[in-house]
UniProtKB/TrEMBL annotation:
GO terms for molecular function: hydrolase activity, acting on carbon-nitrogen (but not peptide) bonds; metal ion binding. It comes from Pseudoteredinibacter isoporae. InterPro entries: Glyco_hydro/deAcase_b/a-brl, NODB_dom, Polysacc_deacetylase_ArnD. GO terms for cellular component: membrane. This is Peptidoglycan/xylan/chitin deacetylase (PgdA/CDA1 family).
Length: 311
């Protein structure tokens, strides 16, 4: 074979290998915000939070995200906030009527609460028949879990699972408590801590996915509609992009093959879809990363966000 021909074939082989390698290494995630319209009586009021959050989304060119919404909060200012999110092109979805803890209620009570939320939510623009269980608790008995699986299927609802878990809500609670107590907050340090904590958990669950699924799936990131989200979502996204992550629309993420996965395990406390898959394949420890530990978060917040200002 001619030397030039061999060189061309080698180059093509190398290019193909690089292409398939980069494809396998591609990482993507969709962003979802739970508990909307969440209470807003601290750093921001509701209208300001919505304005800042929409601006942050647009400024950083994020694709369509989903707001999992609580029915009994979807009135007055809260309803106006949800309409703003929908009019900005984002999805409104179902998150129960009273943020009910399924572990503490019967199947019939949970279904009744679910149905109370529908008239409050399904008339809003961009409503999708997606349901996310509050606290990710899908039923602590087989009867409850399987009953809700059947009910959601009959109603035509997707179980809007997550793959990337974190405790952003706890960091928010520490921030709001500091504001209420008129403590000096180092906002630059808060931004850094927010980004680091969430990326720690994202990378942990992605590595778990690669180990137990054999690939990095189209991930679904759980966040909440909160003030720190409005402040720092863009910083988080830019940090992720620097690490090679791509943000995708939520609809695209829910077309991953793992959307149809159903664990046989009854989880009282659900670690998310990747945790389910890992458990079903033999993993028994480490389904929750240390960045989801309240003691760990509080220590870092007090040391890094408040500690530097105690003089």
């Amino acid at each position: 074979m001619h030397t030039n021909t061999i060189f061309v074939l080698q180059a093509l082989t190398l290019t193909a290998a690089c292409f398939f390698s980069s494809s396998m290494m591609a990482k993507s995630l969709a962003i979802t915000l739970d508990d909307s319209p969440r209470s807003a009586t601290g750093y921001f009021d509701g209208p300001t939070r919505a304005k800042e959050l929409i601006a942050e989304i647009e400024r950083h060119k994020l694709p369509q995200i989903a707001f999992f919404s609580v029915g009994n909060k979807a009135d007055g200012e809260g309803k106006k906030r949800l309409i703003q999110y929908a009019n900005a092109g984002h999805i409104i979805a179902h998150h129960s009527n009273t943020h009910l803890d399924f572990n503490k209620h019967s199947l019939s009570e949970y279904i009744a609460d679910f149905e109370q939320a529908e008239p409050q939510l399904n008339t809003l623009p961009n409503y999708q028949r997606w349901h996310r269980f509050p606290y990710l608790r899908e039923g602590d008995t087989q009867e409850k879990r399987d009953g809700m699986r059947r009910y959601l299927k009959e109603k035509g609802y997707l179980n809007a699972y997550i793959t990337l878990n974190n405790y952003d809500w706890y960091l928010e609670s520490l921030f709001q408590k500091a504001i209420a107590q008129q403590q000096k907050v180092d906002f630059e340090a808060l931004q850094k801590l927010y980004v680091e904590l969430i990326i720690e958990s994202i990378e942990y669950y992605d590595q778990m996915a690669v180990e137990y699924l054999g690939r990095s799936p189209k991930h679904v990131l759980l966040l909440h509609e909160m003030d720190i989200t409005a402040l720092y979502l863009g910083d988080l996204v830019e940090a992720l992009r620097e690490k090679g992550w791509k943000t995708i629309p939520v609809k695209e993420a829910f077309h991953d093959d793992i959307a149809d996965y159903q664990t046989k395990k009854v989880f009282k406390f659900n670690p998310g879809r990747i945790g389910e898959i890992a458990y079903d394949n033999g993993k028994r420890k480490g389904l929750w990363h240390h960045s989801l530990d309240e003691t760990y978060i509080k220590r870092r917040f007090e040391t890094e966000v408040l500690g530097n200002l105690k003089h």
